[in-house]
Amino acid sequence: MKGTLTGAFFYTAMNIEELKQWLRGFPEALETLHSEPTNILTYKVGGKTFAYFKTSEPERWRFSFRTTPDRFLELTGMPGVKPARYMGRYHWVTIVRVAQFQEDYLRELVQWSYDKALSQLSKAKQRAIGADSEAGQQ
After folding, report:
1. 29: closest CA among 19, 37, 38?
2. Global pTM value
3. Phi (first) and psi of residue 100, to 5 degrees
C-alpha cells in the first residue's frame, strides 16, 4: 500500500498483489486464470464473476468490475477509468492503473460488485455462502 498526494488530498492505494489478496478473501471467492484467447484472471462467487484482471499485453493488470449505472457514468468520466471492453453495456468499468486509484473507494466499488454477483445466486446458495463465511469468522 502506498500513499499518493493529489492536489490537497492524500490517499492510499493498493498495488496489484494487495488487491488480488483482498479479492481472494471474499467468502467463497474463486480465483481462476484463463489462458489464450481471453488471458484474464477472474474472481467469481458461485460461478458469477465479480472482478477480473487482463493478464496479457498491452492491457496487462488492468482491473475490471461491475458497478451501478450511476457509478458507471461517474467513473468513466474519471481519468484512467473506461468502460470495460465487451462488458461496458453491462456497466463494467476498467481501471487502467490500480495503484493510482483511491483504496477506500475501490474497496467500496468492488464490494458492491461482489454483493451484486452474490445476489444473483439462488437463495440456498446465498445462505450456504453466508453460513460458510460466518463459520470462518468464528
Report:
1. 19
2. 0.84
3. -105, 10
